[in-house]
């Protein structure tokens, strides 16, 4: 074996040890992106339910105001007050 062959084998071995680290990095990056995507979906679904609740609240306030009460009395009633 010549010196060139030994250097080539040494370079191949050092490259092999980096492959494991690169694989771990890639998998951790992929995992964190998946977790972020799930979190964003959960936040979006939370906004949908808040939007529906706001529509129901606004309808309640309009109904109470149509019955002749003030806006503050309607809001108090729809929030669970008497």
In short:
With about 80 residues, the chain is an all-alpha fold. The protein has 2 helices and no strands. The protein has one domain.
Q: Helix coverage percent of residues?
A: over 70%
Outline the biggest β-sheet: none
Order of helices and strands: HH
Q: Could you tell me the radius of gyration in angstroms? A: 32 Å
Can you count the helices?
2
Strand content: under 5%
Number of strands: 0
Task: Explain this structure.
The protein is an all-alpha fold and 82 residues long. It has one domain (3-78). 88% of the residues lie in helices and 0% in strands. The protein is built from 2 helices and no strands.
Please write out the topology.
Blueprint: H1 3-66, H2 71-78
Q: Which structural traits does this protein have?
A:
single chain, 82 residues
């Amino acid at each position: 074996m010549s010196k060139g062959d030994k250097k080539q084998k040494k370079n191949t071995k050092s490259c092999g040890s980096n492959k494991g680290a690169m694989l771990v990095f890639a998998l951790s990056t992929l995992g964190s992106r998946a977790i972020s995507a799930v979190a964003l979906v959960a936040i979006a679904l939370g906004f949908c339910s808040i939007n529906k609740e706001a529509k129901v609240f606004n309808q309640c306030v309009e109904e109470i105001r149509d019955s002749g009460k003030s806006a503050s009395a309607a809001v108090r009633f729809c929030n669970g007050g008497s």
